[in-house]
């Protein structure tokens, strides 16, 4: 019979709590599970519980076993190491026959955590039985890729079939029950070939399988588009190069593309050298969202069931009082003027005292050009407010436009749309929407928006700001492309034509759906294996590494950075939350793995401070380091 135990509120040690959960009653186990959620107070008090040493190269990939008791790691030293981090112990070292940097390691489902697959820069995939007498002997080896293999993916309901993504542009579907003969014309394993639709330089960088709807598979490439395929509509073909599919073989309806609106709407059929690439993607636990870490940009979440194509200009209906008699017509201008005066308070309820204080702080930051802090404060106010306030959204839009980091103008446009949906009579929101359209290189839309503002609010026709914006629009329409459009075309201007994509690829890109949430602050330019993951049972936090040697934790509700921790001497690539506990494993350029758990309440937190300066330095690095993401051959940590 299992023991019962009283709960010690001071106990924060993860290893002890895990042990208690196993020893004592189910009720206490459930209590511990709730206690070990990703609580905000825990997120602010993480510390290195231990450092796992044993690798002799950069640690590029981490993976928890299904029960969360074993951590697997792969490295540039070609070793697969299994750890018990709770006892700070190395369980097993497997010297694989890989001769290139290891980029991915995966436990196969329903194998009692005994089968582990690896992928590496030597273009090879291997499968190991870690309980075998000779675990270094691969049970299954695949050399079908003709370029580096970057990621592996498994499905929870599939113990035998798994998938790989390689820089040859191919996604392979592998079944280790079948005898495998590499590059045989009779051995059908390839599922997707991006080069058939984009160009010969297309690369598959990462892959993930929806944990609930396992027929859906997400693929990231060396471009900013996340693709989700319905593999039920795909047919496998030989991995031999002469058997690659022709365009048109994949049904148009079998794939959906996702891309931030400020990027996807710059589409043309001409393929240019693209510095943005998706370095990692993953589904949430319920399979309803896709989290994407984009190199040379930010982190995005896409809502798979409610995502829509980007909307740039869609003004809500606005009814201006119409005169009913001749005398009313004489006073039409007076009526319109009165309506405009009323619009200053229409649909804009008085903010609660606490939210008004947040708004004041945000305004002070904005006035003093501390745009990061202004946006952070307005976002907190939006999260805490008991009702949606158009003023808060518009103030945040103003801060976005002045800060002008990658994607900020488009984020401002989205906030302007939100403010107008809440209050269609909000004149300032109309004006800033027109300005953001111009900044996004859409002068025709900006002109239409400004004309509609004047039609709805005639007394603003001679407003100085309106006149100056109208002048800017006319000048911009005479210049093609605009400076802003050139900026939005690519965050690091390194564009060289590579030819034209297929009609199918152009169609899919034009139909790309927009993001739900955006997370900014980290820097992701130097490696193309940088991860991002959900943290918490409800995914209430987002975590990712950065080129500054830190890992970041974002709060989902506000999108704000919750905390930043120093975790590597150079770059953090892997930030892997434990499946059940408030515990994280991180790795990067250093030849070790760091385990993070909450510290005692009386200890001083060790997160990076101040946050704003760290974040701004990262954004500057992304803007001033145009070759980092492409020059990956000279350094040991290159992905």
TrEMBL record:
<dbReference type="Pfam" id="PF14559">
    <property type="entry name" value="TPR_19"/>
</dbReference>
<feature type="region of interest" description="Disordered">
    <location>
        <begin position="321"/>
        <end position="349"/>
    </location>
</feature>
<protein>
    <submittedName>
        <fullName>WD and tetratricopeptide repeats protein 1</fullName>
    </submittedName>
</protein>
<dbReference type="InterPro" id="IPR019734">
    <property type="entry name" value="TPR_rpt"/>
</dbReference>
<keyword id="KW-0677">Repeat</keyword>
<dbReference type="GO" id="GO:0080008">
    <property type="term" value="C:Cul4-RING E3 ubiquitin ligase complex"/>
</dbReference>
<dbReference type="Pfam" id="PF00400">
    <property type="entry name" value="WD40"/>
</dbReference>
<dbReference type="InterPro" id="IPR036322">
    <property type="entry name" value="WD40_repeat_dom_sf"/>
</dbReference>
<dbReference type="InterPro" id="IPR011990">
    <property type="entry name" value="TPR-like_helical_dom_sf"/>
</dbReference>
<feature type="compositionally biased region" description="Basic and acidic residues">
    <location>
        <begin position="329"/>
        <end position="349"/>
    </location>
</feature>
<keyword id="KW-0853">WD repeat</keyword>
<dbReference type="GO" id="GO:0005737">
    <property type="term" value="C:cytoplasm"/>
</dbReference>
<feature type="repeat" description="WD">
    <location>
        <begin position="52"/>
        <end position="93"/>
    </location>
</feature>
<dbReference type="GO" id="GO:0045717">
    <property type="term" value="P:negative regulation of fatty acid biosynthetic process"/>
</dbReference>
<dbReference type="InterPro" id="IPR015943">
    <property type="entry name" value="WD40/YVTN_repeat-like_dom_sf"/>
</dbReference>
<dbReference type="InterPro" id="IPR001680">
    <property type="entry name" value="WD40_rpt"/>
</dbReference>
<dbReference type="InterPro" id="IPR045151">
    <property type="entry name" value="DCAF8"/>
</dbReference>
